[in-house]
Structure formats: C-alpha cells, structure tokens
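Annotators were shown the component list below and the corresponding predicted structure, then asked to write short factual statements about the assembly.
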Amino acid sequence: MTCVDCVAGVEHCHGTLVGSEGCTEPGCEDLSADRHPLVIEAAEVDSPRHLVATAA
Amino acid sequence: MARPIWHGAINFGLVTVPVDLYSATEDHTISFRQFERGTSDRIRYKRVNERTGKEVAYSDIVKGAEIGGGEYVIIEPEELDRIAPGRSRTIDISSFVDLDEIDPIHYQKTYWLSPSKEEYGKAYGLLLQAMRKTNRAGVATFVMRGKEYLTAIRAGDDDLLLLTTLLFVEDIRDPAKEIKSLPEITTARGKELDLAISLIDSMVDDWNPHDYHDTYTQRVEQLIEDKKQGREVVAGEEPSSPTKVVDLFEALSKSVESRKKRRSGSAEEKVDLGSLSKAELDKMARELDIKGRSKMSREELEAAVAAASGARRAS
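Structure shown to annotators:
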C-alpha cells in the first residue's frame, strides 16, 4: 500500500514511536510525535500484544 | 533543509493561502540507546504479529480501537479523512485574540508556516502584516495525522507566521482531582511578605532566553567524555535543604542582603570582557542600551561594551 505521507513529500517516520523511549526504526533520531503516524504508549510495550523488546 | 511536516492552506475569511508547516523547535537532549546490562547487546523494539511472531511492515499496519471484550474495530486512514473532509488540509482561523489572554498552560509546540509557492507570498504577507499591526493572534483548528489541533497563529520576528499548538480545555487536568493535598494558602505576615517582594524586586530582569542554557545536558556530555577518557566522575552539588518555617524570615532577610551585596559588588568590580560569552556580552550591551547589538558578532559586542562602559564610568 502506498504511503500517503511519502506521496505528499512530508517529513515522517515509518517506525512506531514508543512513548519517549525510542522508535522501532533503527535510524530514527528525531522522536517528535508529530513525525510519527504510529505512536504507542511505553506502558503498552509490557503487554505482549503489540511490540517486543529484544536484545539485538 | 528540513522537509515540511504538513501541507495545507490557511483559511482567513474568504482568503485561502496554501502553506507548508515546519517544526520550529527541536529537542537536543542526549538520546541514550538501551543495552542489556553486562553485555554490549542493543535493545531494539520490533513490531510483531502476536500470533505468528513475524515482523510487520509499516505499510501493513492499520489502527484498531478496542470496543470491549477483547474486540476491536479496524479504522483505515481514509475513513478518518472521510468523517471530516478537508479538515486535514485546512487551517481555519475562526477568531483573533490578544496573545496575553492565552494562559501559557495551553501552549504546546511551535511551527513555522511558509507560503507553499512564491505566488502565494502576497496574500501570506498581507495576513502577516495585518496580524503584526493589530498585535492579534488567529485562533484556528486543523487536523494532522488523525488528531485535531487547536492553534494560535501570530506574526513572528522573522517575517514568518508562527503556529503554536494549544491544549484543549479538556486536555488540562483538574488539580483538585490530581494533587493529594492542595496547599492551604494562609494570609502572609506583613514583614515576611514585604521581604519576599523585596527579594523578587531585587531579582527582576529582562527576559533574555540567551541567558539560559541546558546545563544538565552539558553535565551529561561531560560525564560521557569523562567515562570515555577513563577519568574520575565528580559528583554534583547536593540540593539545598528546605527552609524551616521558623527560619523563613531570617532566610528571606539574608537572601535580600546577599542580592544587595552582589549588585553593588558587580557594579564596582572590573569585568574581564574577554572571558565573557556572547550571551553575557549581549546582556551587558542591553543594559548599556547599545544600538544594533543584535546584529553584532562577539568581538564587535566586546568592543562596543568596552567603549560604552568606559564612557559611562568617565561621565
């Protein structure tokens, strides 16, 4: 599926922002919520449903 | 060059100005990576399908809202657009207010608005100049990334319109519900209140953001450098103890006295201008009312401050 933000040429990140902890996109340096279409509360990471934190 | 974070148009009466929105601020705090203690293994977040355990790509993720009983409704981005057509493409100014009327508790983040094409510059400039002349801010709403923002738009110093997002009233908590014990304010005793006011008066200054720097981040950077070089890490100062109620008058008196001494001392002592930062020289230039200081380099500021303070001492 085509990303509408890519088509529109606007600044955004394809990772999921995890509260203020980090982003799933390894190279993401700017953790502003306004450039992340996908945001999840850090507390939800404890729930096994959405995200897993693993040692790389 | 930064890329805009949003494209759209400002609606001002029947005038529509296509604009791009850029972040005007950035967070410079040190971004730490996470590691498993005792290893050099980085912690990474992965988005996985809970059933298959496989990673899911950005383009395959949709949003779902929980409706109870572990059930969800899936909402596609186009469906969100359809319930408010146009809202995600326009910033609608509904009224103009005095900026001082807005309680700073509402302020969130500031962006620059620029005309999306040169041909829209005339209408953009007209709006900017009218807002500057009336000293009013336009109150507007718009939708970005599926969220509605309340905003204040004002003319900035750089001939750019600034858009500041504001919290809605419903986003602001009721302190009575959140704070365990609200302070009971008893009427302050006359002398204590007078001393506290004297202390405030002695600390009155002009607001100059260049006077304030993130010293905590500087210390974190120093800590990193020290650890990198294998140097001993020096602990910072412990915070001061809270003032006992019986000592309040004495603490206030000493504070006022200390401020007075510092002021008279700083007026008398000769300052080594060469050791001062540009921000410190700028502050002195402001106090000496040196014209054109905002465009001066550090060296020019030092020379102008030296000349002006010498002239003042001589007169």
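Statements collected:
1. Chain B touches chain A through 31 residues (CB under 8 Å).
2. The two ends of chain B are 50 Å apart (CA to CA).
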